[in-house]
Design a protein that fits this description.
182 residues, mainly alpha, globular
Length: 182
C-alpha cells in the first residue's frame, strides 16, 4: 500500500518478500523464546513520500490489521466448508490448526489496532484526531511503548490479563460470527 501511495522505502529495502528472514527482528525473536511474546521488524514507511501524509499513513497502517481480519475470515470459511464436506473431524490436527489460525489472526488484528505507538492503531488514531491535537498525541506517543510493554508484562509476568480483557471480547465475537454466518 505504501508503495502504491508513493513511498518505495520498503520495496527498496527488500521488504516486499515472503522470505521470513527479511522480517525477523533479532530482539523480537529472542523475546518470543524467552517471554513468549515477540515481534517482527517494523516495515519502513517514509510518510514524507505521500501526497497526503496523514491520510495515507492511516491507509497503510490499516492494511496490516485488515489483512489479518480477512485471513481470519478465509480460515473460518475453509474451516466451515471442511466440516460441511466432512474433510475435518472435530479435534483432528488440521481442525485445531484452522481454529488456532483464526484466533491468531483475529488476535493480531485487534492487538495491532490498539492506539499505542508503534502499533498500527496509533497511526490510524493520529490520522483521525484534529490537527491541533497531534503535537500532544505525539508527546504521549513517546511514552506509549513503555505503556504497551507494561500491559504485556502484566499479562505474562503478573498474570493480570489486561490485554486479554481488552482483546478477548472482539476476538470471541468475530470468531463466533464468522463461523455462524458461514
Amino acid at each position: 500500500m505504501a508503495n502504491r501511495l508513493g513511498d518505495p522505502t520498503a520495496r527498496l529495502e527488500g521488504r516486499l518478500t515472503l522470505n521470513p528472514m527479511a522480517h525477523l527482528d533479532p530482539i523480537g525473536t529472542l523475546c518470543l523464546f524467552l517471554a513468549y511474546f515477540g515481534w517482527g521488524r517494523p516495515v519502513p514507511v517514509n510518510t514524507s513520500n505521500f501526497k497526503h501524509p496523514l491520510r495515507d499513513d492511516m491507509f497503510v497502517s490499516a492494511c496490516g490489521p485488515l489483512s489479518n481480519f480477512l485471513t481470519a475470515f478465509l480460515l473460518a470459511l475453509f474451516f466451515k466448508l471442511s466440516l460441511r464436506f466432512h474433510l475435518l473431524t472435530p479435534h483432528s490436527y488440521f481442525y485445531d490448526v484452522l481454529r488456532l489460525g483464526l484466533v491468531i489472526n483475529l488476535s493480531l488484528c485487534f492487538f495491532n489496532l490498539i492506539p499505542l505507538y508503534p502499533l498500527d492503531g496509533s497511526h490510524i488514531l493520529r490520522g483521525l484526531i484534529p490537527r491541533s491535537m497531534i503535537p500532544g498525541y505525539e508527546r504521549f506517543s513517546s511514552y506509549s511503548p513503555f505503556l504497551l510493554l507494561s500491559l504485556v508484562a502484566m499479562g505474562s509476568i503478573f498474570q493480570v490479563p489486561v490485554l486479554g480483557n481488552i482483546m478477548g471480547p472482539p476476538i470471541r465475537f468475530f470468531s463466533r460470527l464468522f463461523i455462524s454466518i458461514l
